[in-house]
Predict the structure of Mitochondrial import protein Pam17.
Amino acid sequence: MASILSTRGALRSLPGASVKQKNRIIAVAIRCNSTKTTLETTPGTLNWSQYLAIRRQRHKWEAVASVPTALLGLQGAVAYFSTQTVDFTTSIMGLDPMVFFGLATVGITGLGYLCGPIVGSSLWRISHRKTMHLIEEKDKEFHRRIVKNRVNPSAQSYNNPVPDYYGEKIGSLHQYRQWLRDQAKYRRKAQWATEEAS
């Protein structure tokens, strides 16, 4: 209310504005104030836009965490294998020792990369522990919606793969609507293919 009164006071001192323009500015201020009050008086709620933005942020944390974990895996493998004494006259599992060490280093680096999402998700959960119960509720609701609206994968083929079966690429309401359109398009295409085959 105080912000509306201060807006009215500021408008009185505005020389060039017409009465209609002043009323329009006041109406916008009232709308903004009522929205702010609604958000303040309903704590413990999470709308779909906020949830999908949070979900997108969680995926970013998981992706970013994969880089340092992969580098740690590489560093650990190099540190370990560089201390090993190599007898070039013998083979390890039928491979040359240097080839084996190289493949093992690549494997450990890949394992470190795969551990990144686990580490990133854990760090993200710690940073969002106050709102985790809201996010988990939305996660369940989102999963129910995905299961309800996704297509039956039994009709998929090499030329007609299922579009984003788990909804992993959804990060906004626009992308969710596009996902629904893709599912409907796939259903139609699969139905046409079944009708043609029969």
